[in-house]
Design brief:
Helix content of chain B: 25-40%
CATH topology of chain A: MetI-like fold
Strand content of chain B: 25-35%
Shape of chain A: flat
Largest sheet of chain A: none
Largest sheet of chain B: 6 strands, mixed
CATH class of chain A: Mainly Alpha
Number of helices of chain A: 9
Distance between the termini of chain B: 36 Å
CATH superfamily of chain A: MetI-like
Radius of gyration of chain B: 19 Å
Oligomer: heterodimer
Number of strands of chain A: 0
Number of domains of chain A: 1
Structural class of chain B: alpha/beta
Largest interface: A-B, 25 and 32 residues
Helix content of chain A: over 70%
CATH architecture of chain A: Orthogonal Bundle
Distance between the termini of chain A: 75 Å
Number of strands of chain B: 13
Chain lengths: 247, 285
């Protein structure tokens, strides 16, 4: 039978590793996604081409095989060994970054041309336009697909268990080998992943509402945020009254 | 250049300008006051020639209105000046400097980004669809470019922005997002935003065409105010003929990429010489 000791001794440390792998690979993936995604909108064909190559190569590569390559082949070729966890983070980050770059590119392409023209008319350089006008406007469009990708990534971290990283899947396998109770162990594991994915989704939804409010798109609704918004509205009303008084 | 904000309002004068606003390139070079000059500019879209060997220039401080049927190339002229388009042939000069070309070893070559950006600073544009940045509140919309393009300090830029927003009558809306404003208000913010860069030339591209009829007057009043109280040069594409008559020193009538007729507004609107102009005016007046 599953005992609470098994949960605290095996599952909990595993969850912590899974969380770490998720966070690190998500950060790497986000950096890659923004870099490659914006490069894919470059005016220079060679830049677009190279960034496109990156996208095609990493989209078409199995993250698992890439991990095997990093852990087992690279040391033979370079006589240099990556810590397994970082090999996992690298493989996941680079692969999911490629998917993410498509989200960034698509969202940037969806920013109206008129916004680019307004930026030109005000004398912004290309990088200023990207940073101050295009990316901030594309951002709310990116959040929902990023949420999907982040959950894919979370579940993808289970792959690191096969390169000897002691994440929660690895821990569950250990427990199962020890007590042979496959049904409860894997049921619990499914619930753990679902719970983590659910927390991520809630967080991303919060981010989405805030992002949309940041471009004046729609008023955020619901739970946590509602209170924050009311405070905001209160301040706004105060400012208006003050303005009226001054007049 | 004095800013519109600190210039006392000068009562509108209806006297004829001492010198014509639109002159041939040669005349204007002699006078040395030309701010914008098109030299044999041709622009094609696919097989269609939108501008055909266009020559014209605008003297500093003048307000020139471009009229003509749609598709006659008016907007293309503004977009060429704003470098949103590049000419296929010919050159454009702004305040003496070549806009999209550079002279290297006596030969004209395509200008680099930096050169274009430098010359472009003299030009501001207000668009038909306002094109405010939806991710910035009103104040930041107006401050952003002065801070990051001109390098003004935050305080300086904010003061300038506040003055201009007051000039367009929107001091109450500083903290609103563009989506919370009416079209007319958005367009007035867009005018303030363009002026915050202190351009020498202001391009107005059908700035009231996207507005509900009752909002048009407010925007035109602001522009009239600016036209009469500053020395800014204006190039204006509009279908508001009364407004054109009010503010223009000269009117250019376009058709099929060529200037059909040009002259002071009284002449063009009351007693045009070309039958093409008469025809066009009869459809819009």
């Amino acid at each position: 039978m599953m005992t609470s000791g098994m949960f605290t001794n095996y599952f909990l440390p595993g969850i912590w590793i899974t969380v770490q792998v998720t966070v690190y690979s998500a950060l790497l993936a986000a950096a890659v996604a923004f870099l490659v995604g914006t490069l894919r909108t470059s005016r220079l064909w060679i830049v677009r081409f190279l960034a496109g190559c990156y996208f095609e190569i990493f989209r078409g590569m199995s993250a698992l095989v890439f991990m095997f390559f990093l852990v087992f082949s690279l040391p033979l070729m370079l006589r240099w060994q990556l810590v397994p966890m970082w090999a996992g983070v690298l493989a996941l980050g680079l692969t999911y970054g490629a998917y993410g770059s498509e989200i960034v590119r698509g969202a940037l392409a969806a920013v109206p041309v008129a916004q680019r023209e307004a930026g030109v008319a005000l004398g912004f350089s290309r990088s200023q336009r990207l940073r101050r006008v295009e990316i901030p406007q594309a951002w709310p469009e990116m959040v929902p697909p990023f949420n999907n990708l982040l959950i894919e990534l979370l579940k993808g971290t289970a792959l690191v268990s096969v390169i000897m990283v002691s994440d929660v899947t690895f821990a569950a396998n250990l427990v199962r080998f020890a007590n042979n109770e496959s049904a409860p162990v894997y049921t619990l594991l499914l619930v753990v992943y679902f719970a983590m994915a659910f927390v991520l989704t809630r967080g991303m939804r919060l981010l989405e509402r805030r992002a949309k409010a940041g471009v004046g798109q729609e008023q955020p609704r619901g739970g946590l945020l509602r209170r924050g918004l009311h405070e905001d509205a209160g301040e706004g009303a105060g400012a208006l009254t003050a303005g009226g008084a001054a007049r | 250049m004095s800013s519109p904000a600190d210039t006392p309002e000068i009562p509108p004068t209806v006297t004829d300008p001492p010198e014509p606003a639109v002159v041939t390139a040669a005349e204007s070079r002699a006078a040395g006051t030309e701010l914008v000059r098109f030299d044999k500019v041709t622009k094609r879209f696919g097989g269609t020639t939108v501008l055909d060997q266009l020559d014209f220039s605008v003297a500093a401080g003048k307000h020139v209105t471009l009229i003509g049927p749609s598709g006659s190339g008016k907007t293309t002229i503004l977009r060429l000046l704003m470098t949103l388009l590049r000419p296929d042939e010919g050159t454009i000069r702004v305040d003496g400097a070549l806009l999209t070309h550079e002279e290297r070893n006596g030969r004209l070559v395509k200008a680099g980004d930096r050169h274009v950006r430098e010359v472009r600073k003299k030009i501001g544009m207000v668009f038909q669809q306002f094109n405010l940045f939806p991710n910035m509140r009103v104040l930041r919309n107006v401050m952003e470019a002065p801070v990051h393009v001109l390098g003004l300090s935050k305080d300086e830029a904010e003061q300038r922005a506040r003055d201009l927003i007051e000039l367009v009558g929107l001091s109450e809306q500083l903290d609103k997002y563009p989506s919370q404003l009416s079209g007319g208000q958005q367009q007035r913010v867009a005018i303030a935003r363009a002026l915050a860069m202190r351009p020498q030339v202001l391009l107005l591209d059908e700035v009231t065409s996207a507005l509900d009829p009752e909002l048009v007057a407010g925007v035109l009043d602001v522009l009239r105010d600016i036209a009469h109280s500053t020395d800014i040069t204006m190039l204006c594409v509009t279908h508001e003929m009364t407004f054109a008559r009010d503010i223009s020193d000269a009117v250019l009538m376009f058709d099929k990429g060529k200037i059909v007729e040009s002259g002071p507004p009284d002449k063009i609107f009351s007693d045009p010489e070309e039958s093409r102009t008469r025809e066009f005016l009869s459809t819009v007046l």
